[in-house]
Fold this protein.
Amino acid sequence: MVDGSEKYRSFYAKLICTAAMLDDARIEEAFRSVEREPFAGPGPWWLNFGAHPYVQTPDDDPAFIYQDLLVALDRERGINIGLPSAHAKWLGACNIKKAETVVQVGAGTGYYTAILAHLVGADGRVYAYEIDE
């Protein structure tokens, strides 16, 4: 039997790539493989649709963060884990290959850094920079 988080990630990966109008098995696999929970902090979480108010999840069920939503890292300052479909679209446009070296500026807690690491593989390198503690 598939654990809940794995089931959520599988659907989430397909949802994100569909929303990004992206047909890229490697990017879908990266979103399916990288857990979002460790980068979001403990739940319940504050979620956001962009220009709307934040909504707090009722508890720490990871199903809530496997959606195409912003997850607040610092709600008061509007610092979030970015919109997954937007990042998927940008990753697709970058056409990242195995064994490449990539640089990420504005890494936040590292969720998309982990996605990048998945894309470049063990022979690649990801250098991530974040100015905010």
